[in-house]
Amino acid sequence: MFKEVTAAIALMALVPTIAMAQDTPSLLSAFFGLDVSRQIAVRTALVCQGVSGRDGMPVIFSHEVDSDTLDPEDFRVIRASGDTGRVGCVTLRPADDFGELRTALVVGQYGSADDPPARVEIVGDVMSLDGSLNFKGTVAEVIPLASGPTMILAEDLPPNH
Q1: Terminus-to-terminus CA distance in the chain, angstroms?
Q2: Using one digit for the tens of pLDDT, what is the confidence trace for 108-139?
Q3: pTM of the model
Q4: Local structure of 67: helix, strand or coil
Q5: 87-109: b or e for each residue (b if 16 or more CB lie within 10 Å)?
Q6: Looking at the domain 25-144, which fold is it?
Q7: Which of 12, 60, 134, 146 could join 28 via S-S bond, C-beta 3.0 to 4.6 A?
């Protein structure tokens, strides 16, 4: 058990470092975190009207993103069968504080237990916060709900933030 945990921590630390060391945009993670949830956060519900009863998926980018370039049509969720799920809303909320602008909550209808979401693709122009990187064409395999959340990235922030 100790070796598995150590290896997992080492791998989690390595993947974001490699992605961020290059000036190449990438998706670090997509987690099928809320299956038909009625408990989407109030702050998110204010932005995403009518999200009650929809699926939620945090998608983590390698670099902070410009919220003005996020649009539901920029995301494609592919189910295990190859069918496409429907994205209804995307927001950086509730993770919209300093240093958190790399996690987008993508809300929609993505599948079922028999046909779960398998992959997320960026098909539109989602830009980095500084405008230098475009995430179009990046892909992430979906971490299944049953696998539970995983730490993907940790970084130090300046003390005044």
Answers
A1: 36
A2: 888 887 899 999 999 999 999 999 999 999 99
A3: 0.76
A4: helix
A5: bbbbbbbebeeeeebbbbbbbbe
A6: Immunoglobulin-like (2.60.40)
A7: 60
